[in-house]
Amino acid sequence: MASCQKNNNLTQKQELCSDDQKIEQQIIQFKNQLSDTKKSGEIVELDSAIWYINFTLNYTYTFPYIEYCDYYIDSAFVTMNIYDDVVTFIELGKTYCDIEDVLREHFFSIENTNKHIVNIFMEETDICENNTIEFKIVSEVGVYNTEKSTNVSNTDNPFGSTDWWSMGSGKCGIYSDYAGWDAEWDAAKKISKAVNTKLANHSFAYYFTDDTFFNLLPWTTSSIPNGLEYYLCPESCCLSSQNMNCYYHRMLELFDYYKPSGKSFHYVTIYASWDVGIKGDPFFDVNVLLYGIKHKRETAPVNPCLK
What we know:
This protein has 307 residues and is an alpha+beta fold. It folds into two domains: 18-143, no CATH class; 165-296, no CATH class. The chain contains five helices and eleven strands; from the N terminus they run αβαββαββββαββαββ. The protein has helices at 18-34, 46-61, 89-109, 187-199, 241-258; strands at residues 43-45, 70-81, 86-88, 115-127, 132-143, 165-166, 170-171, 206-216, 238-239, 264-274, 283-296. Strands 2-5-4 form a three-stranded antiparallel beta sheet, with helices on one face. It has a three-stranded antiparallel beta sheet with strand order 7-6-9. It has a three-stranded antiparallel beta sheet with strand order 8-11-10. Helix 4 (187-199) packs across helix 5 (241-258). The N and C termini lie close together (7 Å).
C-alpha cells in the first residue's frame, strides 16, 4: 500500500525489550522480502504467514487511542492459496496487498480528514476445497476532533453538573437546550472517552496484536459485578450527571474483571442500539471491551494513501 508519508522514527528513542526488538526486526525483514523478487519462490508455513501479515499490518498502520470521538468498523473477506499448509512467498505478498486494498477502501470511504486506523483484526474462517483459505478482515477507523476541546478530566467523577446526555442524541433533560456542546457527542461517546482517557492513553510508540473482544449486553445474567443499567426509552435514555459517573465507574470495574492474563487494555467503545424484538424494549446499550498484547515500536505508523 502506498502511504502518504514514509515511516519516520518516533521523536523520542524507544527502549524496546528483547521480544519487541526481535519482532520489529522480523517485520522489517518481512517487508523487505515482499519487494524482493528473488524471494518469490520461497515457502512459508501457514501459521507463520498469518503471523507475519497480522503483525506487519498492525505495526505499520494502526494508531492507538488518541481521544477518538467516533469509530467506524468494517469487514471484508480475502482468500489465499495454500499447498499442504505452506504458502509461497509470492502468494503471501499477493494476500498482503489484497488486505491493504481492503483497508484503503474502508479508510477512504469515511469522509473526514482527521482519522486513523485504530485496529486490524484477521480471523481465519474456512478452508475451501480448492486449496484456498479464507480470512475475515475487520478494521476500525477512529475519527478525532482537532477544532474543539472535548477533553474529559481524568478525575474520580469526570462528569459535572451540566453533563446530562442522551444515548444517541446529545444533551438532554434540563440541559437539552444548553449552548456550547458539540452536537456529535452523546452519552455513549462521552463515557467511552472518559474510560479511555483514564485507561487507554497510549502513544504512537505502541501497537497491539492478539486482540480479545468482550461484547457486554445489558441483560447479562452471570454473576459478574457489571451493574450496567438497562436504560429504556423514552424515560431513561437521558442520563443525569450522577448516572454518567455511575456508568463510568461500572465500566472501570468491568475492565478489571474481564482483563485476560498477559494482555493490556486497548480501548472501549459504547454505542446505543435499537431493536424492538429484543425483550420487547426498543433501546439498549452495548459495551465492547478490547484487550491485546502491547508492543513498543521505533517507527511511527502511517495512514494509507490512494494508489
